[in-house]
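Render DMT family transporter in 3D.
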Amino acid sequence: MKGGNYIKNKRGLWGYKFILLLVAFAWGSSYSASKEALDILPPFSLLFMRFFPPTAVLALLFAKRLAGIQRVDMRRGALIGLFMFGGFAFLLTGLVYLPASKQSFIVSSYVLLVPFLSMAVNRTSISKAERIAVVFIFLGLFIMSFDVRTGFQIGDLLSVLSAFCYAAHVVSIERFSHDSDPIVLSLVQFSVVSILSLAVSLVFERKGLCFANMIEVHRPLLYLSLVSTLFAFVAQNIVQKKVSSTETALILTTELLFAPLVAVIYLGEALSLRVMLGGTLILLSVLVSQVQKAMHLQ
């Protein structure tokens, strides 16, 4: 009987891990979908249209939970949402200047910034492997981004700022999610991003929220809203209750593989030698760090 339950639980665990793999693909492919939509929509209009539909869907589906929402959940969700807004705002404005394949490597380096922010906020320790990995991360970023003739570009800087915001987003979720409803936190986060992006769009992008433009890019908009946002973020919040944070981070690292692959196949982007070399260093650094962490916890 115990053996049967064990097999069943193992199968269920692999099911949760497969869902995380789908989340990684949804996030990795979002760079290409965003790049396509940015040909028509300005960044903050796109951000509003990405997050408003999931906010409305969650509000309708979980209206009863909202009735009992606590002020502490509002404060926590608002702070997490502020970091989420910063991450996406810098990502989309940076994506205006960079190929999707290159930016995905830069932004995904947030995985190795998390331990350092967590050390400062939660008083956690950092392994030697993580310290070494960060050195190689920055070496990879330097190879990809620095040009002797022009130096670092604005898109590179914006993408690095995006990575820092995403790292802060992960650490804030780790700190606040244990005793808060993940659906409520997700809804508050989405609401904050929707409100802030709408405000910026109305002030600085007066022709951004144009219905004709939205119709023209309806396919990437639907994908970003329903798959890369609603499905991916809610699935992550639910699955992380079953899968350890170390395994979650390791699986989500595959976003680094999916993003350039989709950009090459879907957008027809070409990977330069510098991007391939720097991206490989970043990918190996993240993988080695996460594998070492997983082995240490076994």
